[in-house]
Amino acid sequence: MQIATPYLMFLGDVPDTLAAKTAYGIKDWRPEWCVGQMRLPGCAADLGIPDMTLPEALAKGCRTLVIGVVNAGGVLPDHWVKEIVAAIEAGLDVASGLHVKLGTIPAIAEAAARRNRQLHDVRHTDERFPTGKGTKRSGRRLLTVGTDCSVGKKYTVLALERGMRERGLDADFCATGQTGVFISGRGVAIDAVVADFISGAVETISPEAASNHWDLIEGQGSLYHPSFAGVSLGLLHGAQADAFVVCHEPTRTTMRGVKHPLPTIRQVIDLTVQLGSLTNPAIRPVGIAVNTQALAEGEARALLETLASEHDLPATDPVRFGVDGLVDRIVAEFPEI
């Protein structure tokens, strides 16, 4: 899948920033590709880049309209269809990370065929995966796990990839969500894989490697989330993780989209070790990553110090304070790398 850049980011009329996390992720890690944003009345998200009309975007060289949103069920709202058709008519390709395939919507399919434009469904793949085998494979793997969904698992592994490479380590980000695929240009949206093949898909995107190579695997959901635990467990088993980092958002009391209370970090550590040991008995935690965006700096640092002391693990906000402590722990735990 070759998606033409640069992008015009379509945010629709999403109700909050989390609903536009795909767009934010692309903008944060590939800002040079994001020329402008297109928003409808009532949109509560703002990437901090210029709002553009279609003619303005084309004049700036945009080649693809990226639907940078997520929602329950991955559906495309009916009132967005005319906006997407207009973009196709103007000469843009369209890329989407939603569950619904663009080509299944007649108006979009007809416009793309007539205008000879490309439709990219990043969440879907033509590749067929085997079932997972759980057989030990060479190389090292790290997985991010969460107390909830949308807590920073992708940002943590991307920050770790950058930090580990700066230290001379051989490390690659492995995308398992639509935003990660947009950012890396490869990977698979694991939540769209048929359940029996989730662990096999993860084994496929993190195959055998050199003994000192690290695959940094993007986690999804949470083992404690009633909606997404199945995906999280398949990821854990397929990753055969040597190490994991727990990701957490400290201001939540219930899990996103449901009424269940947030698990503790200790509960997540214990359950990850218990379940992950099926495919790697040596699995171990190497740190805690906390999204402290809602906290003042002093409050954030105090919380991180408390968590580090309570769990005897380095704790940081990877975006705000970097990942040096996490990398130090990885090197200490796996000196052969």
UniProtKB/TrEMBL annotation:
<protein>
    <submittedName>
        <fullName>NAD-dependent epimerase/dehydratase family protein</fullName>
    </submittedName>
</protein>
<dbReference type="InterPro" id="IPR011669">
    <property type="entry name" value="DgcN-like"/>
</dbReference>
<dbReference type="InterPro" id="IPR035402">
    <property type="entry name" value="DgcN-like_N"/>
</dbReference>
<dbReference type="InterPro" id="IPR035086">
    <property type="entry name" value="DgcN-like_C"/>
</dbReference>
<dbReference type="Pfam" id="PF07755">
    <property type="entry name" value="DUF1611"/>
</dbReference>
<feature type="domain" description="D-glutamate N-acetyltransferase-like N-terminal">
    <location>
        <begin position="42"/>
        <end position="124"/>
    </location>
</feature>
<dbReference type="Pfam" id="PF17396">
    <property type="entry name" value="DUF1611_N"/>
</dbReference>
<dbReference type="InterPro" id="IPR027417">
    <property type="entry name" value="P-loop_NTPase"/>
</dbReference>
<feature type="domain" description="D-glutamate N-acetyltransferase-like C-terminal">
    <location>
        <begin position="131"/>
        <end position="327"/>
    </location>
</feature>
